[in-house]
């Protein structure tokens, strides 16, 4: 969580540049913001609570060739101006922005206080500029002081640091993402994510864990935090375009990304067939395949338990990444861990990978962000090619993940071509489905239920994880109390929650479990629920029917789409900003 962005180079409006750029990282946190600009031998810090998108960058247009900025998702310390970054040293000569958590900050803070350092915030971050200040008593080299300070920090961090008398911008990472944008014309950009600097360059260099960089805007040095040893770094050209990362004519990224599914699913399906076969074989050969992910990505993992079972007759084990400890002792050299993540940076997923690797198991990643930590650290990696997903609510990443997982299941059954055909047909059905009339129909439904405070969703088989996912989507953007259940579990407790006209959505397919889920819907109707069927065909069980195409085994991909649209409109009609849900950030890089 939190986004950081720094620039040093030939451009003379560094302050304005970092403020404009970090607005593209607002999805990482929107509690508060801040910027530090270097002017001559002074560092000017400006920070406040509130959203960075509301800040007029013009006020930072004054000449400055080095600046760092931050957009915050609070962890340590409340949302106050004092807790906003940048944080500075006691003598105000050093400014630092940080993403992550310094776990031993209490101990460091106590130690620094004893040495006379004054702290102005409740954050863990503030120890960093003070530690650097302390280290500068032993060396005149700013980068060496930052390196020594980093060696004292435990936990996860990506930091940017600058000093009044040094021309260099220094960055370091352990656990949280950091990417350098390289532009021979402009200089160097360093950010938590690429959209911050995409306007200037698409040539990037990724920092690995335990690495730091030092740049004066003309050249850059990569080195180890531990040893200080310098090493070369490969430059990579990224394929995402600036247009893909923008909202275009849409009011919100969430709706833009729902509509992107017209093309993104087909892109996910068009994988290199040979690679899919290699992965399928690795799963077949593995002695124990485990799938982990968080939130929406976790629901894709859960759905794949059904895909592998039904399509490939193969058993896999799913756990939310944060609960994976349960399986640690089963991991062996012959095991395979499949990790699913849109961002490729989720801390709990990285932790699961670390454990699996320590046991000698192989890791397959299915990610959206190329070059992300998970993408780079996995033994094999498949990209879902959804393009940038900026809204906190994950939409097109989910359908891409489901498509790739289903493709692998078909490959395991020796039916890759059949699976590919089904999924491409489904992609085309979704393309047709996402038309203005269909969207309006769901908007009308949202209008009719927008005042309801409770909403339940049921499903069976692969529609069960989709019911859970539906609940996440509705909860996070509209703040309606939504819960998903397995249809068959209703009568074991949850049905007691149903009151007169409680909206209950049933996700239905045209398959062997249809009769059961329709019975469950009728049970809800008999208790006074307002039943809404998302189904290829209408049924007397439904008070309202949202028609979806019949996609056979790919029904999960189709059924979730009207719910994404419903969640979006519920949010908008309840006066919420769907792109910035309360208390949430897109990349969860803390455990
Ligand atoms: C989805 O709408 C959520 N915002 C969230 O559950 C998300 O899917 C989760 O944090 C995992 O993120 P990742 O895919 O980037 O790992």
Write the layout of secondary structure elements.
Elements: E1 3-9, H1 14-22, E2 32-39, E3 42-49, E4 66-72, E5 87-88, E6 94-102, H2 105-114, H3 127-135, H4 142-152, E7 155-163, E8 169-174, E9 179-183, E10 187-191, E11 203-206, E12 211-215, E13 220-224, E14 230-231, E15 236-237, H5 253-269, H6 273-285, E16 289-293, H7 295-312, E17 317-320, E18 336-341, H8 347-358, E19 362-367, H9 373-377, E20 380-383, H10 396-412, H11 416-433, H12 436-449, E21 454-459, H13 463-478, E22 481-486, E23 503-507, H14 514-526, E24 530-535, E25 544-547, H15 555-573
Parallel strand pairs: 16-17, 16-18, 18-19, 19-20, 21-22, 21-23, 23-24, 24-25
Antiparallel strand pairs: 1-4, 1-10, 2-3, 2-4, 5-6, 6-7, 7-8, 8-12, 9-10, 9-11, 11-15, 12-13, 13-14
The structure holds 2-deoxy-2-amino glucitol-6-phosphate.
The site of 2-deoxy-2-amino glucitol-6-phosphate has 16 residues, from helix 7 and helix 13.
């Amino acid at each position: 969580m939190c986004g950081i962005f720094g620039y040093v180079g030939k451009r003379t409006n560094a302050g304005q540049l970092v403020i404009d750029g970090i607005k593209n990282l607002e999805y990482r946190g929107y509690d508060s913001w801040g910027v530090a600009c270097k002017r001559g031998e002074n560092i000017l810090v400006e920070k406040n609570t509130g959203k960075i998108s509301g800040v007029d960058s013009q006020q930072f247009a004054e000449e400055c060739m080095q600046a760092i900025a931050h957009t915050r998702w609070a962890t340590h310390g409340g949302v106050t101006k004092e807790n906003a970054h940048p944080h500075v040293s006691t003598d105000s000569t050093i400014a630092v922005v940080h993403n992550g958590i310094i776990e031993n900050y209490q101990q460091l803070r106590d130690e620094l206080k004893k040495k006379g350092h004054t702290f102005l915030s409740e954050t863990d971050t503030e120890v960093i500029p003070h530690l650097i200040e302390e280290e500068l008593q032993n060396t005149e080299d700013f980068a060496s002081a930052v390196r020594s300070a980093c060696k004292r920090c435990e936990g996860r961090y990506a930091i940017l640091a600058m000093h009044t008398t040094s021309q260099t911008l220094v960055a370091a990472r352990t656990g949280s993402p950091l990417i350098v944008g390289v532009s021979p014309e402009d200089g160097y950009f360093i950010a938590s994510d690429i959209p911050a600097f995409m306007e200037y360059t698409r040539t990037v260099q990724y920092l690995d864990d335990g690495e730091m960089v030092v740049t004066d805007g003309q050249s850059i040095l990569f080195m180890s935090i531990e040893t200080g040893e310098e090493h070369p770094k490969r430059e990579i050209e990224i394929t995402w375009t600036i247009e893909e990362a923008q909202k275009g004519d849409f009011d919100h990224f969430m709706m833009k990304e729902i509509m992107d599914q017209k093309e993104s699913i087909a892109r996910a399906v068009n994988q290199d067939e040979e690679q899919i076969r290699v992965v399928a074989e690795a799963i077949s050969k593995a002695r124990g395949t485990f799938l982990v992910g968080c939130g929406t990505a976790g629901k894709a993992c859960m759905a794949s338990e059904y895909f592998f079972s039904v399509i490939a007759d193969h058993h896999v084990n799913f756990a939310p990444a944060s609960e994976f400890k349960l399986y640690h002792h089963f991991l062996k050299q012959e095991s395979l861990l499949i990790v699913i993540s849109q961002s490729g940076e989720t801390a709990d997923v990285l932790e699961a990978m670390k454990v699996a690797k320590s046991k000698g198991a192989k890791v397959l990643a299915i990610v959206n962000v190329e070059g992300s930590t998970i993408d780079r650290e996995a033994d094999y990696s498949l990209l879902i090619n959804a393009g940038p997903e900026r809204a906190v609510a994950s939409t097109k990443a989910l359908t891409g993940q489901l498509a790739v997982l289903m493709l692998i299941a078909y490959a395991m059954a020796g039916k890759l071509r059949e699976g590919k055909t089904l999924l491409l047909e489904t992609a085309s059905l979704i393309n047709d489905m996402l038309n203005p009339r269909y969207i309006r129909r769901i908007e009308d439904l949202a209008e009719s239920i927008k005042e309801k405070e409770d909403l339940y969703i049921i499903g069976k088989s692969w529609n069960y994880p989709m019911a859970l996912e539906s609940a996440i989507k509705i909860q996070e953007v509209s703040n309606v109390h939504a819960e998903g259940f397995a249809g068959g579990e209703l009568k074991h407790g949850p049905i007691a929650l149903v009151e007169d006209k409680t909206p209950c959505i049933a996700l239905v397919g045209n398959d062997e479990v249809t009769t059961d889920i329709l019975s469950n819907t009728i049970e809800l109707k008999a208790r006074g629920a307002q039943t809404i069927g998302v189904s290829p065909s209408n049924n007397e069980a439904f008070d309202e029917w949202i028609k979806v195409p019949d996609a056979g085994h790919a029904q999960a991909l189709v059924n979730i789409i009207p719910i994404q649209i419903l969640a979006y409109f519920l949010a908008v009609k309840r006066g919420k900003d769907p792109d910035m849900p309360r208390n949430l950030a897109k990349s969860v890089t803390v455990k």
